[in-house]
Design brief:
This protein has about 260 residues and is an alpha/beta fold. Helix content is about 40%, strand content about 15%. It has nine helices and eight strands. Helix 5 packs parallel to helix 6 and helix 7 runs parallel beside helix 8.
């Protein structure tokens, strides 16, 4: 091959990528997450829809991890695992437990978002309306005293809700959040392998995973759950982040959602 031809080929190899790059669209950062303002707008938009959230739209790579019934003795360990994996989550707090772990809400806020899980975790459908109001309001103000703002998210205990309960939550500006993946870590003496398997079965874009930060076995299962999320090319986010990244679509048929939702 002639020297002039070799030189021309080498020049083409060097210059072609740079020339093509001019026409390429910039690629957004893989780890980019919505801002606080974008998350707030997403929660407000979902609240205006007037129905609970069961899952995301399934169009991205986000999975929302949620933890109920805390804070508790294993919350700190769970927070450490989330920090180590650069993962986010949402913690639905029981108000009367904050007196025992008053630092927890501020620490949880650093890895995601907070939600209202009532003051004493009663079945709200068996309580009078004024009791439901009190259960929600006491936790709203207790959390606000700790972190300086009131939750925008709400999860009913035992998944028991009614038109009356839903209406009270809406009047308080609270978005009801359910789930479509149940880790089943709230059964007595749950096994780590079972919890991981339950979560892994449901992992998909837009999933909302329900776990509890009251149990040693949940804390033990979390590293494997986070590894499974990463292995599938997904990332663990908070509920407001999921709503901003992958909002649910009407009538998309989330698992566990009522027919037509």
């Amino acid at each position: 091959m002639k020297p002039a031809l070799i030189a021309a080929l080498l020049a083409l190899l060097v210059l072609a990528p740079a020339a093509l790059a001019v026409f390429e669209k910039p690629i957004p950062a893989i780890g980019a997450l919505p801002s606080a303002a974008e998350q707030e707008r997403a929660v407000s938009a979902a609240l205006r829809q007037g129905r609970p959230v069961y899952c995301g739209g399934g169009q991205g790579n986000a999975v929302a991890l949620t933890f109920d019934d805390g804070p508790g003795p294993y919350t700190g360990r769970i927070l450490s695992e989330l920090h180590a994996a650069h993962a986010h989550a949402t913690f639905f707090l029981v108000g009367n437990r904050l007196q025992y772990w008053p630092e927890a809400p501020r620490e949880e806020e650093r890895v995601g978002s907070l939600g209202n899980h009532t003051w004493s975790h009663p079945p709200l459908t068996k309580r009078r309306s004024w009791v439901v109001w009190l259960e929600l309001l006491r936790t709203q103000y207790a959390v606000a005293q700790d972190v300086g703002w009131k939750p925008r998210l709400f999860r009913v205990p035992y998944a028991l809700h009614s038109a009356s309960v839903d209406g009270i939550a809406q009047r308080l500006g609270l978005l009801e959040v359910f789930w479509d993946v149940d880790g089943r870590d709230d059964v007595p003496d749950a096994k780590v392998a079972d919890i991981v398997r339950n979560v892994r079965r449901g992992l998909r874009p837009g999933a909302i995973v329900e776990l509890h930060d009251l149990h040693a076995w949940t804390a033990a299962a979390l590293p494997q759950i986070l590894a499974a999320i990463a292995a599938r090319g997904l990332r663990a986010v908070s509920v407001p982040e999921l709503l901003a990244l992958d909002p649910p679509a009407p009538h998309q048929g989330c698992p566990y959602a009522p027919v037509g939702e």
